[in-house]
Design brief:
This protein is mainly α. Helices cover 75% and strands 0% of the residues. It is built from 12 helices and no strands. It has helices at 3-27, 31-43, 47-60, 67-80, 84-97, 104-117, 127-142, 149-177, 191-205, 212-228, 232-252, 259-273. The model is unreliable at 1-18 (pLDDT under 50).
């Protein structure tokens, strides 16, 4: 029998032994025995075992000395096991049950941290992103002097960037759709107008975003395209608006690669406005 086979058989035997022991503990009525085994499983990284036992024990331990630790350990086991939705709910339950408990600060932080771990792609629904932002803000309100404050603030910026990117992708999509009329709603007359509204609202909500220049480029280009595709009665006013937008862009972003585009638009706008 070679060395690799011996190792494989030894590991299999060890796994079977551990599994048998876990099933024995699971069937036991001795809560103390179960609790100590759950702690041991957690320490060894056997989070599935810890979760199974602690899910039962948190109810049985209620009002007892180990109640706080049981609930917090369950939440942390869920977090370490990658079940972030359950972890967030359990951390929240801990903080609501023990707002001044031994693990209150960590639990409050990990409500947001758990939701952060499942932050979706910017193109998808951002409910969990908003939930994480609210959780981190609550944490900062409750524990303004926490050593975890800086980490929470960093995560807030990342989460907000995700929301901003979603708005940017929406604005960009409207711009790319351009003259397509199949998706236009009753509040706008063109995709270019929808792009302008989406981008402007994003800049109002997130004035310090790193995507400010990109939003401004979309607004500038959309206003020019909107002017070009306007009816005769709106044409002059929209060319003037586009021209003003180009000047504003040049003032705010004098080093932008799109300055030549702005200057080109200004020249074309002047031919219509006569300014």
């Amino acid at each position: 029998m070679n060395k690799n086979t011996i190792i494989a058989l030894s590991l299999a035997a060890l796994f079977a032994s551990c599994t048998t022991e876990f099933h024995t503990v699971e069937k036991s009525t001795d809560k103390t025995y179960k609790y100590e085994f759950a702690k041991q499983s957690f320490a060894q990284g056997k989070f599935d075992h810890a979760i199974t036992l602690l899910s039962e024990l948190v109810t049985a331990q209620k009002g007892r000395e180990n109640a706080q630790e049981s609930l917090y350990m369950l939440a942390m086991a869920e977090y370490c096991n990658g079940d972030y939705e359950s972890a967030s709910a359990t951390f929240k339950k801990y903080f609501q049950s023990y707002p001044k408990g031994d693990f209150a600060e960590q639990a409050s932080f990990y409500v947001g941290q758990s939701l952060f771990q499942s932050m979706p792609d910017p193109r998808l629904d951002q409910s969990s992103t908003i939930g994480a932002i609210n959780a981190y803000q609550n944490f900062l309100d409750y524990f303004p002097d926490s050593s975890l404050r800086e980490e929470a603030q960093k995560k807030l910026f990342i989460l907000q960037d995700n929301l901003v990117m979603k708005e940017y992708l929406s604005a960009e999509l409207y711009y790319n759709l351009g003259g397509y009329f199949g998706n236009i709603n009753s509040n706008t007359e063109s995709n270019y107008e929808s792009c302008i509204i989406t981008a402007q609202n994003a800049l109002k909500q997130y004035p310090y975003t790193s995507l400010r220049e990109k939003f401004s480029i979309l607004i500038m280009k959309s206003k020019y395209e909107l002017a070009q595709n306007s009816s005769e009665e709106k044409r002059l006013d929209r060319y003037r608006d586009a021209e003003d937008e180009c000047y504003g862009f040049l003032n705010e972003f004098p080093e932008s690669e799109e300055c030549k585009t702005a200057e080109k638009f200004i020249t074309k706008c002047k031919k219509v406005t006569g300014d």
